[in-house]
Amino acid sequence: MDHIVTVQDAVTAFADFMEPTDAELDAIEQEMPVILADIELLDAQIITLDRIPTELDNRRICRARLRALTARIALANRTAAATVPGGAA
User: CB of 22 within 8 A of CB of 59?
Assistant: First the structure.
């Protein structure tokens, strides 16, 4: 006779105590501009997968790369400013 059992890890994997903390949610919110810029870059690149990129496609990818880089720089600067006590001299 086969017994039917549940896998305890799968059942409790999404229990209330496993919710993200406020600090984790704040970190995700700070990184959201970078995430959105990366998504925009991926969208621009995906469009050109099945065809030869046009000049417009190339400009769209270039702008998306610039936005992604700008978002990463802004995040790095915010992170560095937050970790330096007393600010830069």
Answer: no
Separation CA 45–CA 67 (nearest Å): 14
Taking the whole predicted model, whether its pTM rises above 0.85 is answered as no
Backbone angles phi, psi at 63, to 5 degrees: -65, -40
SS3 annotation, the chain? CCCCCCCHHHHHCCCHHHCCCHHHHHHHHHHHHHHHHHHHHHHHHHHCCCCCCCHHHHHHHHHHHHHHHHHHHHHHHHHHHHHCCCCCC
At 53-86, the pLDDT tens digits run: 999 999 999 999 999 999 999 999 998 887 766 6
